[in-house]
Fold this sequence. Notes:
By secondary structure, the protein is an alpha+beta fold. It is 35% helix and 17% strand. The protein is built from five helices and eight strands, in the order αβββαβββααββα. It has helices at residues 4-9, 45-63, 90-97, 101-111, 125-131, and strands at 15-18, 25-28, 36-39, 81-82, 85-86, 88-89, 115-117, 120-123. Strands 1-2-3 form a three-stranded antiparallel β-sheet, covered by helices on one side. Strands 6-8-7 form a three-stranded antiparallel β-sheet. β2 (25-28) and β3 form a beta hairpin. α3 crosses α4.
Amino acid sequence: MVTIDDVMARNYTFIAKADLEDGGWIVMYPDLPGVTTQAETYEEVATMARDSLRAWAEAQIEDGRPIPEPGDFEIPEWTWEAAGEPLQTTAEVAREFDVTPRRVLALARDRGIGHRFGRTIMFTRKDVERLRPGPAGRPRKAALG
């Protein structure tokens, strides 16, 4: 039988979304439907996420219900926004540029672009345009005049 320590040792991914209307953060676990919470500040997100996972898991164990293993998933269908503007994931930008996500993250870090949501970096359309790689090769020499 699974114990609370077993569940808490698993590596479940959670998503924290800024609540632009009411302030604070909304936290949810894509692998665990119904496990949601809110945090007043970004600094409280991880603590609140862990507390909600623990409370849910304790209830599941007490009632003898199964607890799913963590899974691999794409970001769920969720409208991410920053200042009312839709956001794209690192993977989406990488596909658009036909580069690796690692390259997108390197460009973002070098240019100071992107919005952090937990461990995820998200990008507005304006960010994506600022990230767009230039032409390959050396820059052309300026015409001497």
